[in-house]
Specification:
The chain contains 21 helices and 18 strands. By secondary structure, it is α+β, with helices and mostly antiparallel strands.
């Protein structure tokens, strides 16, 4: 755990304040791993993974989610987090979530580092802070990107939302959101430390945002988020919150004075002048978190008592709070667990602060906090973990579009999820009476997930790893793609009719991609047929006509017969500009084409039964056959089926060769080739064109071939496996293999090399 005494002394330069704080803040907590009920480091690791799932824009190299890709790259401000299972970027809950995460790292950073999660934590925090800073336009801010009403009507993956709708942006000066953004950047700078390269940048924007908030003192222009994230509590709590963080980050007395001046404007109890103390810290109401900071910043006994009074309502389960049979302190049917864990984090920070001055309350608050987080992890009457992917029994149906991987714009169509949304804390019990919970994608009260749900939860996990230690999973995340029960890209077909003169087909080209969901205008497929029956007749291939019937996209191009080899020909169907075959709705997830391959009328020489692509086809037009004999190509790459010579998508391998580390200004003559790309070459013995596998040959001559860990001249999945074994200490690598494995070219072989090779093999990057 970070020594709060040291950190506050470093951040607050006013000596009188520092003197009072020094006498009351706790010393560092030593981790006692043996007494922890759960492996909290694993949970924290997975919670951070959830934030990587929520990333918008161009994904950073360190993003470990294999089923996410770049998205919303045309946003007015790129980056940031999608709010929940939808794709709107709401800056009020986003900035609140960033602040709570920063607080967790600031208070308990040593424990996070010891758990081996420091870099992952800082990366995720920096990602969102950078976005919030760029939303500062100088005299106003971008506070939302995306239309909430339109977005919530569509059920699809983030990578494809720009095919479905426009993404407007909205600006304002509203104090609620500008104050919250200021708090995020100030707390983030404080947590990352003065040595962080962005420290001054974040402080500069935090100060500017605070000035906007303090000058405007209104929420009048905060309008677009209405119905989603209204500013119910007003803006004074955000001003109070931000002023405390800026004081801690800069040590400038004026910010603490500002915080003091806001107190008379803070919300009070109904029909009373007493400051509010019963509600919970959340994205809308940060008064209690601000009060705790203010009490620590001033060591004022009046506000120390206010914090105690608030936390007593949680620890004792009073003032509109109910305690369930399992020990959850329940306050709302909407995200009950996020309230309890966030209160648990405040209780933990305060427990540490008063450990010496008030050990009785300190122990009570700490016990409350641990009871709440352990409830979430499985210590409840249902023996159920409310954190997806943790434990043996956890939610299977979160309200999250991209994780489901659906293609029909229907959240109930699949009946299963294609991806595991590791680390997401669901809303939880919707009733305190019986710990009631429903694991249903339709029940967004119980099964919603959101960045703010995980925020206080993540911060509390920082405390738990600081106290109990734990170990992150070295083999996380494991690939899920091979376990998917659905095909991503495939062809279905049936016979409309056929006879001795023609074959007429109905074909569906289908895009159900989810690794990640993706779209291209370059989709094609080939129907192969054998013309052996024309030998000895007056007819040749030139007598064949190919005609289109029903064409869903109208602009589909179909070729004349193309020679493959021997007596085998094919026609190629090409979808091009303007066609949309993508998993975004029932009308777009597949494209239908009907076409006929025919000989002259009454020729009676056509025999389809010997045609390669005819295999398995029937006249059942309602149940089309997923045929591997009609091959499909995506961006020119074979992605489905088997060509007549036996070539499949799995056979297509390529390699990438780049310069050696000491040749940074040049590359070798070897061309960079996309993974899984087949190249078209002329067959010297005939007029045919065939698809051939790229083979770069041996790598045993000492040349560096990045990614070729097995030193066999190719970059394939076995290179990934061997490198993983090496990193786990299960295998040794030769000198040549180590050179090839260093794909980041930093003279070290580490996990980021493994990640880069994985992304290359998945087609997420084109080169090292």
């Amino acid at each position: 755990m970070k020594n709060l005494t040291k950190k506050l002394i470093a951040s607050a330069t006013a000596l009188t304040i520092c003197t009072s704080v020094m006498s009351t803040l706790p010393m560092s907590i030593e981790a006692t791993e043996s007494t922890g009920k759960y492996n909290y480091a694993e949970v924290l690791q997975k919670s951070l993974y959830f934030y990587e799932v929520q990333q918008s824009g161009e994904l950073p190299d360190w993003n470990e989610v294999e089923w996410r890709g770049d998205s919303t790259t045309n946003d007015y401000i790129t980056g940031g987090w999608f709010d929940a299972g939808d794709h709107v970027k709401f800056n009020l809950p986003m900035s609140y979530s960033a602040t709570m995460m920063a607080w967790g790292l600031y208070a308990y950073g040593d424990g996070v580092e010891e758990a081996g999660l420091g870099e992952m934590y800082r990366n995720n925090l920096d990602f969102v802070l950078d976005y919030l800073a760029r939303c500062d336009l100088g005299d106003e801010v971008v506070y939302q990107i995306g239309d909430g009403a339109a977005d919530h009507k569509w059920w699809g993956s983030a990578e494809l939302i720009e095919l479905e709708m426009e993404r407007p942006y909205y600006t304002c000066k509203a104090s609620c959101v500008t104050g919250s953004m200021a708090a995020a950047l100030a707390s983030g700078a404080l947590a990352l430390g003065e040595d962080d390269e962005n420290y001054d940048y974040y402080i500069e924007h935090a100060k500017n945002l605070f000035e906007i908030a303090d000058t405007y003192r209104s929420d009048d222009d905060y309008t677009e988020a209405a119905g989603y994230y209204d500013s119910w509590s007003g803006f004074w709590d955000q001003l109070f919150w931000a002023a405390n963080w800026l004081y801690m980050a800069t040590g400038e007395q004026e910010y603490l004075d500002k915080a003091t001046s806001y107190i008379p404007n803070l919300n009070t109890m109904n029909q009373s002048t007493e400051l509010s103390y019963t509600w919970g810290q959340c994205w809308d109401d940060v008064m209690q978190g601000g009060m705790l900071l203010y009490a620590m910043n001033t060591n004022d006994s009046t506000y120390i008592q206010r914090v105690n009074k608030h936390l007593d309502t949680w620890a004792d389960g009073t003032d509109d709070k109910q305690t369930t049979e399992g020990g959850l302190v329940w306050i709302s049917q909407w995200g009950s667990l996020r309230y309890a864990t966030t209160a648990g984090f405040l209780a933990s920070v305060w427990s540490d602060y008063i450990a010496e001055s008030d050990p009785t309350n300190s122990a009570k608050y700490e016990e409350f906090a641990e009871r709440q987080i352990n409830y979430c992890l499985g210590d409840n009457p249902n023996n159920f973990s409310y954190v997806i992917g943790f434990g043996d029994n956890y939610p299977q149906n979160p309200h999250h579009r991209t994780a489901q991987g659906a293609w029909e714009d229907l959240q109930s169509a699949l009946g299963t999820f294609r991806h595991t949304l590791y680390g997401a804390l669901v809303g939880g019990p919707t009733s305190a009476d019986d710990d009631a919970y429903e694991d249903s994608v339709d029940n967004y009260q119980a099964n919603e997930v959101a960045t703010d749900y995980n925020a206080g939860f993540t911060a509390l996990l920082c405390k738990m790893v600081s106290k109990y230690g734990g170990e992150k999973l070295e083999d996380f995340p494991q690939s899920e793609k091979d376990n998917d029960e659905f095909e991503e890209l495939y062809i279905q077909a049936c016979l409309n009719q056929d006879n001795a003169n023609f074959t007429e087909l109905k074909v569906l080209a289908t895009n159900h991609t989810a690794w990640p969901a993706r779209y291209t205008e370059d989709i094609s497929y080939r129907y192969y047929f054998d013309l052996s029956e024309l030998e000895g007749t007056e007819y040749t291939v030139d007598d064949i006509t190919v005609t289109k019937g029903y064409d869903e996209w109208s602009n589909t191009e179909i070729s004349d017969p193309i020679h493959y080899k021997d007596n085998i020909y094919y026609v190629e169907i090409q979808y091009g500009e303007g066609s949309v075959i993508a998993p975004i709705g029932k009308e777009q997830e597949s494209a239908e084409l009907q076409f006929r391959i025919a000989m002259p009328d009454a020729s009676n020489v056509w025999d389809a039964t010997n045609d390669y692509s005819y295999q398995g086809l029937t006249n059942d037009t309602q149940n089309l056959y997923a045929t591997p004999y009609i091959t499909m190509y995506y961006d020119g790459v074979l992605v489905w089926g088997t060509e007549p010579d036996g070539t499949t998508a799995d056979d297509v391998t390529t390699t990438v060769t780049t310069a050696e580390p000491n040749q940074s200004d040049s590359t070798t003559s070897s061309e960079t080739i996309d993974p899984n790309v087949t190249t078209t070459t002329e067959n010297p013995s005939s007029d045919t064109t065939t698809e051939t596998t790229v083979d770069t040959g041996s790598n045993l001559d000492g040349d560096i071939l990045l990614g070729d860990v097995t030193v066999d001249g190719e970059v394939k999945s076995n290179d990934l496996l061997l490198l993983k074994k090496y990193l786990l200490g299960l295998s040794d690598l030769s000198e040549q293999a180590l050179k090839n494995a260093d794909v980041t070219v930093d003279n070290e072989v580490k996990s980021n090399d493994l990640l880069s090779i994985k992304k290359y093999l998945l087609g997420l990057i084109d080169e090292f």
